[in-house]
Amino acid sequence: MNRKLDLSIVVPLYNEEESLPELAEWVDRVCWENKLSYELIFVDDGSTDRSWTVIEDLKATNPSLTAVKFRRNYGKSAALNTGFAMASGDVVITMDADLQDSPDEIPELYRRIVVEGYDLISGWKKERHDPLSKTLPTKLFNSVTRSMSGIDNLHDFNCGLKAYRLEVVKSIEVYGEMHRYIPVIAKWAGFKKIGEQVVKHYPRKYGKTKFGMSRFINGFLDLISIFFVGKFGKRPMHFFGTMGALSFFAGFVITLWLVYQKLAAISSHTEYRDVVDQPLFYLALVAIIVGCQLFLTGFVAELVSRSSSERNNYQIDRVI
Ligand code: UDP
Ligand code: MG
């Protein structure tokens, strides 16, 4: 019988050879004890250590394990995206491979999606076991993301441990450093019931963190682009067109005013500089040219967004 699975557990990993056997065993024990059918999806993000060999060995004895390996390191978002595409369980859980997240949280996460009807439950590492150099920027990141996204009930957007309804992961796409904003992306896609669960967090047992300061900076840049695309992505002309029109109009009004001054001076026989001798005229000229450029940019962006398939990826709420 081909029963639908309760859970797909997606684990992105990059050089985590030491943790994998323990993680697979722990996940299996928790699911078995709680009578949850599951598949464990390891996405090897181009590891250069023995991770893949370890996975092959595990696969020999664990029929619930599926794994894919990238040719090179594409980043955590790409790994998650691939895991999302492969997932088929009613509930999809993501967790880090390094045993910092606890598989013991799985049953409660599952329950909140299935019983309480959440679209997404994000873990909150309330007591973190990471150095201050990491927790401080994270605090800042979380408060900025909270205020920009309007998702004010989350404290820990970037927690690797999260649970989703299957439909959610099938409706979103993440790349670059966007895994940090999955709740935001899910909200943009129309999934509003987003909750949080305090989860245990252990210090890293083996290996070392893969994320440094530069990823934080890239992360902030991604945040700006996500918001921009989310707000104007479908109709870029609304943004560029408005800016262009304002700039053009400002330049036009200044020019008219200069011409009017000159005409008034002529009619009253007073001395007044020619329009083209006024510095203000050149400012107006720049504003007019910039206005036209913005308009053209909007036009090109509109063409690009029309040709992208994403444009038709509207989320259907229900069908009767
Ligand atoms: N990871 C990945 N690709 C990368 C970097 C990290 O798949 O390019 C995985 C990593 O193996 C781990 C998870 O993403 O399973 C979180 O990474 P890490 O533990 O280094 O992050 P931290 O806990 O320090 O935030
Ligand atoms: Mg970690």
From TrEMBL:
Question: Which Pfam families would you find in this protein's record?
Answer: Glycos_transf_2 (PF00535)
Q: Which regions span the lipid bilayer?
A: 239-260, 280-301
Stated EC number for the protein is 2.4.-.-
Q: Which CDD domains match?
A: DPM1_like_bac
Against Gene3D superfamilies, the record matches this protein to: Spore Coat Polysaccharide Biosynthesis Protein SpsA, Chain A (3.90.550.10)
Under Gene Ontology molecular function, one entry of this record is: glycosyltransferase activity
Give the top-rank taxon of the lineage listed in the UniProt record for this protein.
Bacteria
Q: Where is the Glycosyltransferase 2-like domain?
A: 8-170
Keywords (A to Z) from UniProt: Cell membrane, Glycosyltransferase, Lipopolysaccharide biosynthesis, Membrane, Transferase, Transmembrane, Transmembrane helix
Q: What class of enzyme is it?
A: transferase
Q: Which InterPro entries match?
A: Glyco_trans_2-like, Glycosyltransferase_2, Nucleotide-diphossugar_trans
Query: What protein am I looking at?
Result: Glycosyltransferase family 2 protein
Instruction: Tell me the organism.
Output: Albibacterium profundi
